[in-house]
Structures are given as C-alpha cells and as structure tokens.
Design goal:
16 helices; Erythromycin esterase-like protein; Emycin_Estase; 421 residues; UCP036794_erythomycin; globular; 2 domains; nine-stranded mixed β-sheet; single chain; Hydrolase/PRTase-associated; 44% helix; alpha/beta; EreA/ChaN-like  fold; two-stranded antiparallel ribbon
Length: 421
C-alpha cells in the first residue's frame, strides 16, 4: 500500500481532538472494566493532561475504582493516602510527591499531575472510605523500599512474621541497594535471596486468607512482598539479557493489578497509565517474535478483549523530558519530525491537527498492516531514534483508539534530588 492510501484512510476517519470529543472515547469504552491509557514517552505534558481528563470522566460517568500507574507501590501509596485523606497524610499534592525519589523522578513528580490529584482528593472527600478512588503503583523496581514497608507493617501490627521479613531484608543488605549488583551475584555466584522472599510472601498470603484483610495496609504488605519476590527474579534475570526480565516485569504488573481488582470487589474498574509499549497488545508488534509479552496482551487474554479498552498516544514533534543515559540528569530534549513513512508522519500529513482515531469492526484493513510507530523512553537521543525508536505495529490490533497530538511539549517536573536509580 502506498503512503497516499494510508493518508486518505486517516483523513476519512480522523476526528478532531477537543475536550468534547474525549466523550466519544468514554462512550466507546462502554462497560469495559479495564481502560489502558498509554503514552509515547514518559516526559510529554499533553499525554499526562489528556489522560487526567479522560480519567476524571471515567470516574464521574463510569464509576471507575482506581488509577494504577507505571510507578513504585510505596511512593504511589503515599499519594493514595493523600487523596483519600488518611490520618497524618501529606498536606498537599506537591508534598506527597516528595516520595518520588527514584530516577526518573519526573514521571510522577510533575506539575501536570497536581490538578488531577487535587481533583481526586476533592472527589473522595464527598464519599465513604470504601468508595474513594485510589492511586497505586504497579511496577517492580522498589525492592528495598518495599521490603522496608513490609517490615514497618509487621512491626506495627505485632505480627509473628516479623522475623521472616527481617531475615529476607537482611539477605539483600550486602548489595547496597544496587539491583544490578545483586543480579550479578545471584546469576553468576549463586548467591540469591529467592527462598527468603518467597517464604515471606507465602506467610502474608496465608494470613490474608485467615484474618481481617479489609485494610489497604494489609493489601500493601502483600503487594510489597510480591514486589520483593518479582524484583529478585527481575534483577536475577536482567544480567543474562533476553526477554525474561521484561516478561517478569509486565507479568508482575498484571499480578499486582489482579490483587487490586480482587481487593476492590466484583464491580471494580481499573484505569491503567503506562507507556504504549506496555499497554498496546504485544501480539500486534515485533515483540512477539522476541518472545515478549506485555500488560495489554495479558489483560486482554485474562479478561476478554471486549472487557479491555486500550488507547495509544503519539506525536509528530515537539519537546520531551528525558536523560541521555540511565540515571543521567533530566533535560528537555527536542523531538524531531517523525521519520518519513512512520505512523506519526502519516498522521501529520493527513492534517497537522490533533486528532482521534477509533479502531473497530468497521476499521479499514489498512490499519491492520504493519507500520513503524514511535516510542520514546526515559533514555532518549533523537540523533539515533530511527534505529531503535520505531516499533513495527498493526495499529488496529494494538489499540482500540489512538490519540494524536501534532506538536507536544515537555513535562514540567518538580525539582527533586534524584538519588535512587
């Protein structure tokens, strides 16, 4: 198919993106319990503000229960405490965001998120505690912080399992909070902590089924111990390369999501904020050839495609917050015009305006053809993006809808000291 045919098809079905047209997405979501909201980078202002607006509408109009994000459980739970008005919680959103000390801090400590958190707090103040909307982190990186939280919880509750937790935590102490250092020793010197963290998780899960499990602190202890188990596996596998570490991470996020859904009951509905590479079905990309799975694929497989609605995001050019290496200082980086013939380039050439596309039963077969689709990570060098930033994708299979912003700008980060990488 020629590029002109792609452009004509986009022109035929594209809907101008306005605040009013977002209601069309809410309508299309219908009764789905899972709404996956993506992003083409971790540092674009418009992706955050549009997801916030969609999330507010889903909460108001569809009764969604919580927002779960690509972030650490301990840091996000402090935000959750703020929006739910927990005793001794932070005084304002910016104070709650001080918990995001792990690089890249800008992903969640940014000014775009503050209005949403304040809106959630106001929304929750008008509701009973069990009806309040939550904000949770699904990611796997917070091994040491999660272990600390488990120990604190067990000390607070006077649990007999405290010694199991302390033993598990002490196993990781020699590695000075360096996941890669732990991974090297675990992979090459058979010095791992797997038995200790699995025993801890089993103890907490046994307690869950035999006692009072109505409080979020108990849920947090279980998810933090699950983080410890899967983070141990993640760092263990990471040094060996291959798809295993990716799969462990995404499988963990789906497992944590299931625990959240179970906790909130049969009528629970989840909004998930993650990068396109996580929420767009991996089976519609070249990831499948590498043996990789992702959240979008797994949630669809486990819950039925009709019960899941995935929205991808993209841009033609602008600026973005990123680092030039892992752990490097954040900076605003120019995003060049999309590579010729890519999905973003064709969207631009079909009209240099913001737009929405819906992929449904009436979608053109052309959108099921493979095309390069840009993905920008927290590490980004635009000089080399055409060699690794375009994911071959079948757009109509990867997403249910797509939001395109022609020119985007970088996030406005809160200034935090980035000490954890």
């Amino acid at each position: 198919m020629s590029q002109s045919q792609w452009i004509k098809e986009i022109e035929k079905v594209a809907i101008p993106l306005t605040m009013d047209s977002l209601d069309l997405i809410v309508e299309a979501i219908g009764d789905a319990q899972y709404v996956l909201l993506g992003e083409a980078s971790h540092g674009t202002s418009e992706f955050y503000t549009l997801r916030a607006e969609l999330s507010k509408r889903l909460i108001r109009q569809k009764g969604f229960s919580f927002i779960a994000v690509e972030g650490d459980w301990p840091s996000c739970f402090r935000v959750n405490q703020y929006i739910k008005g927990y005793p001794d919680s932070d005084k304002n959103a910016q104070e709650a965001m001080q918990s995001f000390q792990r690089w890249p801090t800008w992903m969640w400590a940014n000014r775009e998120l503050i209005p949403l958190l304040d809106w959630l707090k106001e929304w929750n103040q008008q509701r009973n505690l069990d009806e309040r909307v939550g904000f949770y982190g699904l990611d796997v990186y917070s091994l040491w912080e999660s272990m600390e939280e488990v120990v604190k919880y067990l000390e607070k509750t006077g649990s007999a399992d405290i010694e199991i937790a302390r033993k598990a935590f002490s196993c990781f102490e020699p590695y000075e909070r360096e996941g890669q250092q732990y991974g090297v020793y675990a992979a090459f010197f058979s010095q791992d902590c797997e038995d200790e963290v699995v025993k801890l998780l089993h103890a907490l899960q046994t307690k869950k089924h035999s006692g009072d499990y109505k409080h979020e602190e108990a849920l947090g202890a279980e998810i933090n111990s699950l983080v410890a188990v899967n983070a141990e596996r993640y760092y263990h596998s990471m040094v060996r390369g291959g798809p295993e570490s990716w799969n462990i991470r995404d499988e963990h996020m789906v497992e944590a999501l299931k625990l959240l859904m179970d906790f909130h009951g049969n009528q629970a509905k989840a909004i998930i904020w993650e990068h396109n590479t996580h929420i767009g079905d991996a089976r519609a990309t070249d990831m499948v050839k590498e043996g990789m799975v992702n959240v979008g694929q797994l949630v669809r497989e486990q819950n039925g495609q009709k019960n899941v609605y995935a929205v991808g995001f993209g841009t033609h050019q602008g600026t973005v917050i990123a680092g030039n290496a892992w752990g490097a200082p954040m900076k605003s980086v120019k995003v060049p015009a999309a590579d010729r013939g890519s999905w973003e380039d064709l969207m631009h050439r079909a009209g240099a305006f913001d737009k929405i596309l819906f992929f449904d039963d009436a979608t053109s077969p052309l959108f099921q053809k493979e095309i390069g689709h840009r993905a920008i990570g927290v590490v980004y060098d635009p000089r080399y993006e055409r060699y690794g930033n375009y994911v071959p994708s079948r757009m109509a299979e990867r997403y249910d809808a797509f939001i395109y912003v022609d020119v985007t700008k970088a996030l406005d980060p809160l200034v935090l000291e980035e000490v954890l990488v």
